[in-house]
Amino acid sequence: MKGFTLWLTGLSGSGKSTLAREVEAALLERGCRVEVLDGDEVRQNLSAGLGFSRADRDTNIRRIGYVCRLLSRNGVVAIAAAISPYREARAANRAAIGRYVEVHCDCDLETLKARDPKGLYARAAQGEIANFTGISDPYEPPEHPEVVVHTGREDVETCVRRILRTLERLGLVPGVDAEGYRPEEEAEIARRLEDLGYL
Amino acid sequence: MPMKVLILGLDGVPRGLLERLARAGVMPSFARLIGEGTLHDLRASIPEISSVSWTSFMTGANPGIHGVFGFTDLVPGTMRIRFPRFSDLEVPTFWDRLGRQGLRSVVLNQPSTYPVRPIPGALVAGFVALDLDRAVYPARHLARLEAMRYRVDVDSRRAQSDRTHLLEELEATLAAREAAVDYFWTEERWDVLELVITGTDRLQHFLWDALEAAEHPLHERVLAYYRAVDGLAGRLVERFRAEHPAGRFFALSDHGFTRVRQEVRLNAWLEAEGYLAFQGEERGALSALAPSTRVFALDPGRLYLRPASEALRTELIERLTALGFGGEPVVRAVHRREAIYHGPLAERGPDLVVQAHDGFDLKGTLKADSVFAAPATMSGMHNSEAFLLADHRVGDNLDIAEVAGHIEALFP
Fold first, then answer.
1. pLDDT at A176
2. Residue pLDDT, tens place only, A138-149
3. Contacts of A156 in chain B (CB under 8 A)
4. Any idea what DSSP says for residue B75?
5. Residues with pLDDT less than 70, chain B
6. Is the ipTM here above 0.95?
7. Cβ within 8 Å, pair A161-B131
8. In B, which residues are within 8 Å of A185 by CB distance?
9. B78: domain range?
């Protein structure tokens, strides 16, 4: 199987890392080789020392894109989960990588502020964090992403299935026949039956 | 004037509850429909679960013919289970049969029709449907359903800990179903229109206690849901009669419901009695069973014997019939396969099917090590007490598989 890059972009807290891990698990089950590059982790090693100016953000995204390109051309599914706020940097990665699928994790700011598990939006609103995307720094939503998931009102399973269906339709991962169940569907059906006490 | 049929499914609503709520003024539309028509007892499938009962309804056939015996079925000749899918059915549905006469059916939220395949008309699959885009036929309706925030089911996991959220979801889902009916009513040409409301089953699983007890803090809210169901039924019937005065109306449930007092885990009983053993520490799957296992259960009361023998069946029937809890008998009946399943696929069915008295909820879990347990999250359980309501006399104590024949007979 050929590799490709699945790039999840969206505001902080919009579910990129969660979806990356769920898609990773589903693709591993289908026999794919998968690597997740999580923005928070990358900033602690590959991009340690970079700040949040536009130039530093673009450098960070270019570096993640570079690793994704290496992985993709070696048969690995590279999943990047990074805010990646600027269209230009994302477009450059798309052009360099080729086999590239963009997922916009779309979640409205009010929901993110209400969730705010790390308290970042509250701190940003009080001016304690500078250059915070969506508050004091811009986020340029993708114009033509392959997938949009509405993480504010759709559950994780729905979002994951939409991503996987898109990958199938693009011929990037193997699917199953139209009237059968996919492995992750079987797992989900089992979960639902268990929730109702039928397993 | 051409015949038209309107069918309303109320998943899991027992006859007694329908009558009680109708009498109490909670369901005035149904009170009127019962007064004007005929309310019949209806025998649910065995076991009395939606996948088997609704499949029997839609095919008009016994499980030995349609081949669905549970929410999970054993892959013949193996120790693996699989989830039945709509395309597994080897017999046509009554919508298919009517289609051969050029008649069209619009079917909304029908359980056990996922992933959808084409039918003569339109179909929106119900439980266990996951992806809406594989639950809607023809696909051209998908965008409209998405726009009306149509959803197949509520979040039963969250319902276990958050009943208020469950009620909110039930109300929203019901509203979306009505919007979907309104849309299909005019968007598709139809001779049969069927809507199944599954929220009643979900509510009764999690809130039967609130339904029964007037002092329960959610009692009024629960009644409000039945009022909403009744309101929807009333509007549909009124519109149907106005547009199709010669048409026929049916309402039915696929099984009944009652209060659960104890879960009865049959595999734990089989283990304690020496019929079943695990290979090691691992539990939870058929693959963990030791080769010495002679009997195992799948949910809710399906027993599979390895190998099957009449002596072992007789022994199990005797011992299960004697099973008691707190001085009460647990088991109402143990059926031999050939007594309840007829047809070419009957051999795929369980060797024995156990049915319990109301209050004892049979479980096929392989994870439990105690036979009896108080229910952890649910206060309601299925029983056989289904109903059939029609605006004309159909027949008492019909099997749910016999209803389709009566509907088809309306189209000579």
1. 54
2. 999 998 888 889
3. none
4. P
5. 90
6. no
7. yes
8. 130-131
9. 5-260+380-409
